[in-house]
Amino acid sequence: MDSDNDWTAILSDHPIFTLPKAFSGPVSKPESFLELSSNNLPNFTLPNEDSLAPSGRRQVMLLKGADLILAAGKDIRMASLGDARLNQNSKKTYKTLHTPNIQFDIHQMVLNPSGKLLAVAGAFQVAVVVLPRSTFTRLVPDTIDCKSVQLGQYYHASHASAPITKIEWHPWGEAGSTLLVMTIDGKLREYDISTDTEEPQQVLSFMPEKKSKSFQAEDPSEREVVSFALGKGTADWGPLTAYALTRSGDIYAICPYMPRNASIPSSYVHSLECFISAKREFLAQDTSSSRNLSMLYDYQHKYVSALIKQLPPGTTFPALSRSVLMHPPSIVRSSPARQGPFLLQPSPCILEGSDGGDATDIVYLTFGLDHDDPDYEGGETAHLGAVVIAFQDGRIDVCLDVEKVEARWDGKQLASQGLPMLAVYENIDLGLVSLLKQSYGDDTTSVELLQGNHVVFSQDPIHDDIIYVYHAFGVHSLHLGPVLSHLASALRIEGDDSEGNLDKALQELICTSVQPILSTYSVERRCSNPVTAIAVPNDVYLTYTIFILTSAMRILSFPLSLQDDDARHRQEHVPSEEINQDPEVSFFVPLEGPAEYISLLGDEPYKPPDIFARPTGLPSNPRLVLPPSASNEMKLTPDTLRYLGTTVANLTSQIHEIQLAFQSTEARVVLQQQELQRQVEKCREMNLKVRRLRGETLIQVEQRMDTIQERQKMLLGRLDRTLQALMEKACPELSEHEMKWFEELKRMKEDISGSGRYDEGSLAARTKQLEKDFGRIMPNLKALAEKEKRHKERMVENTRTLGVSQAFELGERSNHERARINEIEKELVRLADKLSLNLERPPGT
């Protein structure tokens, strides 16, 4: 391995991984306090224990780009991994963030989407820290003052309040300032850091309040919420759904839920509107639908319409999507209803040797949402979701979200007819029970350490089908890619028997690839250093690696392999009917009948043995990171010998599998060499045939083609003569209609061409005469038009010489003269009447 990329060697002596101050000094605690053993088991079983013992959910390390952030007790430390790699020989340093408001041991850390705010939580308290800029390493002092503020001190400040189980930033919070805090009593509180840090904006209650005068015979674990998750999706209610997991394993959901100040993509709102419209249209066609269901969809339509009204003008679909500030609609007065508990069908299996264990974490996974192919149309696989649940005993339930959760509100008329359902696809065993039984034998107390185990999920930031599971005994990797490809190929098969193909695919179970990465359990001492955090960088300046931190502040790293997501889509099976329909490919489809050449390799592509397949790049056997022993001598006990025997047996089995795989691979190589020789011989034969065709055979073919063409001409001539003879024989004289038609054609020819050469009445002669007249008259017309144009221009110029005032005076003068003329006319008429004279009418009347 390249030393520059071996992060374990680079960070092994980094001072940032020193233990907190509580483990140094005269009254310090022993390091065994951080170990999970039968002596320290009570410190790991109490979620409300605010101590350094890693009880409950722990996430004390994360990456912000190339910067490492670590929580050690009450301190928050930061260091640059880039500087640590470049300056390996120099002294390594780190910075401590000075946050006086944080006076509690940090159990969880979460970075907001913008990377500027860090949320930290202890057993009861939660705070937000404003992180320094990326140039913090250039500062001289070892301590950096940072602004920090505690959230909801009325709800999370005292030991009497409900313990905090999980914190998470909402991905759609405006400016990345919406923090969700879940407490063990089932209250999910939403805090907007930019608005109010004391009072939550919204509170979702997954557990109803107990009635003081009532008695309920229920297990207390059914009312303790241990984790929550946010749904996902593209055109359904998934992103507006919150899931909660109780300690007993029950799952509840609340939908719709969105932050008080949310930044939602406009494309999602339009897609949700289309989804609701399609539901209502389908319901209108179904005459057997109930009135409650119709009212429910009406409420959903009102809710989505209120979201549509908040979009800015001009936001149309399918235009380019953009994030829009929105607020939860208040058009539905009822509060969102709690849905659940979910029915798990079929019922999950309990691991052998375990009593079931408590549930610890839940995660919602989606596949195919970020496909970059512009021609990809999504389909059902784009909405394929999975709910993964973890338990203390190492059981992982993979459930398919086949019945999507929809928005519901409280009310008798909107009450659900049944419980929601999740399809249990697979039960995964991490092997923790068998690991403990190896050291304890048949002792009934062998699984007691599982009570202090808390299994936590961590999603890979690059591949959405890989999740990491860390717990008190190590780390495992779950690769759901094979399951995804199998289900996707079944869902994409169209036809009348699509449901049958899906059932057949579900019967052919493809399991999740489980890879153990790290083991921290010591068989000799029967104790373990729990894993408190894992981090996978998503930065171009850091290699694709997984960093693992144990409770003893020991850091380990494993390089990972990037996977080609497009290759998975290319490898999916394409039906042969679609291949034959493609005109570009149909040319290469072999003809019907026996094949001319049969390959020794067969039709199926070669698949390397599974023992050689390492898609993630992780080692085949987990690395052992054991707690430090008090003595350097190793004691051989029956448990140690039993563990060594089991390990040797596993290694021997792997060696045997590798040998068999090598033999099969070697046989495949020999077969490919033989096939290569056969293909070379076949190519030589084809070359000889081509040369023969290009030589004498080509000349013979050309001569034969010339002969065929001449023969074709002769046949065409004979065909014409034969056809003419048949026509003359069938009708030797012209019919009456044919004679009339020919006479009409003759008359039309005379009208056009004329009866003679000098016929001036023909259309051709008249057309020529018109052309001559047109050529003679056209110059005079052009000259006249030009003269008229000049005359108009002169008239316009003359009118332009008279000003407005002059025209006004001229008009007044003209009116005055007209009035005098009228008076004179009247006077002349009066005088003529007196003299009895007849006058002619004046001009202009």
Automatic annotation (TrEMBL):
Transmembrane segments: none annotated. Its main location: nucleus. GO terms for cellular component: nuclear pore. Keywords: mRNA transport, Nuclear pore complex, Nucleus, Protein transport, Translocation, Transport. SUPFAM superfamilies: YVTN repeat-like/Quinoprotein amine dehydrogenase. It is found in: Nucleus, Nuclear pore complex. It comes from the Eukaryota. One of its GO terms (molecular function) is structural constituent of nuclear pore. InterPro entries: Nucleoporin_Nup88, NUP88/NUP82, Quino_amine_DH_bsu. This is Uncharacterized protein. It comes from Amanita thiersii Skay4041.
